[in-house]
Amino acid sequence: MAKTKAAHAAGGLAVELKAQSEAIEALARQIDSLAxxxxxxxxxxxxxxxxxxxxxxxxxxxxxxxxxxxxxIVAQLIDGExxxxxxxxxxxxxxxxxxxxxxxxxxxxTQIETGKREPMFPVMVKIAAALEVSLDELxxxxxxxxx
Length: 147
Description:
The protein is an all-alpha fold. It has 2 domains: about 1-60; about 70-140, Orthogonal Bundle (434 Repressor (Amino-terminal Domain)). Helices cover about 75% and strands about 0% of the residues. It has helices at about 1-50, 50-65, 70-80, 85-90, 95-100, 105-115, 120-130, 135-140. Mean pLDDT is about 80; it is low at about 145.
């Protein structure tokens, strides 16, 4: 009788091991399928050049070559607010401070910020330097302004 119980127990273990083995094989097939799917998606990203572009942007951020700004600043620029005013306020500068730092009069700066006057290129260079931003970031609607 002891042999019968042992044989019965061994048979039950064999069935349980077979079921676990089949479950493991099913999981392995699912993992393989997911891996293939992931590789297909990565290949699509790589062929479109997006992966390289993302890597370049991240490298630029790490190296300090690409400036980043809080979302509220980006939203203001996207909404069409004057970049000189947006960056002046972001830098916590008064109009007087920026005008002095850029070597222009306060009324002229006000006209630039309100869009009543288009500044000459050398003035924009001075304003960009005073605000510590690139010229691209001061040009309304440029690709880099909305970054």
